[in-house]
Amino acid sequence: MCLFLEQRKTDKCRFGQVIEVVRAAPGQELCPVELLQQWVDIQISRGVLPHEPLFQQIDGRRFARRPGEDCLSGGPLDYQQLRRYLFRMLAEASGLDADELRQLYGTQSLRSGGATAVAEADQVFDHEFNQFGGWSSSSACATYKASSLDRRLAVSRSMPHAQISDAASATGGELTEQEKEDVACLE
């Protein structure tokens, strides 16, 4: 699926950008292409026109076209509404309390989780990753990536003072028993 993003923070000349999104692999529970297509179908059924924002603000002052349906304002969804609705949906789906979720996570948590997963897969070049995510530089992107414990320990293992045991080498970098004990006190 190709998405045209009319403007992004890093698109200073406002040329817009096309982002390609692939379908999920067979057997995956969620597919971004299918979910977006379902959302587009819902929006079309609500009367949203092609030139209007795909994600619109909810307007509590107007009457909805159908009973039980939110009334859309026609304007783009703002951050606060996105956050409120996102956490309400996550709470309903997970059975957790929405207020607790709001305290633990922000909308950037989704961006950070995605960035971390792609970085750990290590299958794309940094400049491609930055362009897809809308980051102007690798350093801007790095603030969204979290490193796994194994990746953080790999940095320490590569230092000149590190004494990598034959067991660690044989296991392809898996934690040795001693490393597990050393790390247990940090967690």
- Secondary-structure class: mainly alpha
Please tell me the overall pLDDT.
71
Number of strands: 4
Which parts are unreliable, with pLDDT below 50 for 5 consecutive residues or more? 164-168
Order of the strands making up the biggest sheet: 1-2
| Sequence of secondary-structure elements | EEHEEHHHHHHHH
Shape designation: globular
Strand content: 5-15%
Helical content (DSSP H or I, runs of 4+): 40-55%
Total of helices: 9
The profile of the biggest β sheet is:
2 strands, antiparallel
**Span of the ends, CA to CA:** 41 Å
Can you walk me through this structure?
3% of the residues are buried. Helix content is 46%, strand content 9%. A two-stranded antiparallel ribbon has the order 1-2. A two-stranded antiparallel sheet has the order 3-4. Residues 164-168 have low confidence and may be disordered. The protein has a domain at 1-45. It is mostly helical and 187 residues long. The protein is built from nine helices and four strands. The protein has helices spanning 32-45, 79-94, 98-104, 108-121, 126-133, 138-142, 149-157, 166-170, 177-184; strands at residues 2-5, 17-20, 56-58, 72-76.
